[in-house]
Amino acid sequence: MAEPIATLLDLLAQGPADPQRVFNPWRDTDERDATPHRRMPQRRLDNLAAYLEARRTSARYVLMGEAPSHRGCRFSGIPFCSEHELVHKADLVARKPLQLTSRDAATKPFTERSAAVIWGELEHSGSPFDVVLWNTYPWHPYGDDVTSNRKPRPAEVREGHAAFEAFQACFTHPLRVLAVGKVAELALGQWPGGHCAGYIRHPAHGGESLFRAGFRELVTGSA
């Protein structure tokens, strides 16, 4: 494993400074995890490492989202990726075997709609390893229920900057950063040295067609 990737994984596993209503996929366990629960965070770290390694020398674009979802990265360990992609699009995600972590994954892997839309576009592009996915706040913020999502607080967005700097150091080439949604766009405008090279509508809440159009315009040039 490349040293910058190991550094990033260590930072992620340590978790946020204020973990109030935040789940850390790479350190914490979930009651829906497979057994033994204590091994599942390491599986998610291994998945993320394989995903990043596969793009270390090829990535040219970052699609920057808001935060992990309770059905996506929380179980896969990879931003904008659910267990469905680990099963059905594994060859697009990494070049090494990937691991499932939920207890029902063998019969009913978790799915996440935004992940399905994004990976559908990555497959359509023919160059899935040119794009790497990340989040403004890399840990999963939730509401009153752990099976919910919430927008990261301003302090959490600021904390995400250090993780993003460590993330960028993992790649050989400078990355063109595209914001997927308003949270990412605002964060890139506020972070020291942050730069948003383009905005794409988030696929959630009826934004699927606009996401596809933006992706094809800014990434594949096929709009």
Automatic annotation (TrEMBL):
Domain of life: Bacteria
CDD domains to which the protein is assigned, alphabetical: UDG_like
Biased composition (Basic and acidic residues): 27-36
Residues covered by region (Disordered): 19-39
Protein name stated in the entry: Uracil DNA glycosylase superfamily protein
Organism the protein comes from: Usitatibacter rugosus
